[in-house]
Automatic annotation (TrEMBL):
Residues 9-134 form the Small ribosomal subunit protein uS7 domain. One of its GO terms (biological process) is translation. It comes from Saprolegnia parasitica (strain CBS 223.65). One of its GO terms (cellular component) is ribonucleoprotein complex. Belongs to the universal ribosomal protein uS7 family. It holds the Pfam family Ribosomal_S7. It comes from the Eukaryota. SUPFAM superfamilies: Ribosomal protein S7 (SSF47973). This is Ribosomal protein S7. Keywords: Mitochondrion, Ribonucleoprotein, Ribosomal protein.
Length: 176
């Protein structure tokens, strides 16, 4: 049941992000074509690949910068607040990153989105770099974050298991 709910969530968010000028049927056809092409390329279940890709890419945390006018204190330092994202927001951000980086490529959109999905599945795409950069930004600003105890969740090695080797080395250098 949970897998079906996750599938519907991913499908709906993909179709909403693919919409242009309210053409929902075109977006649905494009989503179905993506699944068909994934099936042809990988010889695996396309929904499994898509769900796994979204799980790899989905950010769990987000930093919020509070503007000066809304703060009560008048310190010069910016205040950052750490926010845990719910599943819907995680999926929305992951799909947004996938589609934005696939639109930046030069060839056919269907090929671009397939290459981006497969690259993310193999931890080699630009959207993975974007996800790594957000976590490294959280690490850099960890002393300015309001809830420091929650940032310690990122100190575990298992949270960085999906990072590329370059980003891991960069993080370890920063930590020293």
């Amino acid at each position: 049941m949970e897998l079906n709910d996750q599938n519907n969530l991913i499908r709906n968010s993909f179709i909403k992000m693919l919409l242009k000028k309210g053409k929902k049927s075109i977006a649905e056809n494009l989503y179905n074509n993506i699944l068909i092409e994934l099936r042809k390329k990988t010889k695996q279940k396309p929904l499994f690949i898509l769900i796994k890709t979204i799980d790899i890419l989905a950010p769990k945390l987000k930093l919020i910068n509070v503007p000066v006018s809304k703060r009560r204190t008048r310190k010069k330092k910016n205040k950052y607040f750490l926010m845990f994202l719910n599943k819907e927001k995680q999926v929305k951000d992951a799909v947004n990153w996938l589609l934005s980086f696939s639109r930046k490529r030069k060839t056919n959109f269907l090929k671009n989105i397939l290459n981006e999905i497969l690259g993310t599945f193999n931890n080699k795409s630009k959207s993975i770099v974007k996800r790594d950069d957000t976590y490294i930004e959280i690490q850099k600003l960890r002393y300015n974050i309001k809830f420091n105890s929650t940032v310690n969740l990122l100190d575990k090695e298992e949270d960085f298991s999906t990072f590329s080797q370059k980003k891991k080395n960069k993080y370890l250098l920063f930590k020293k």
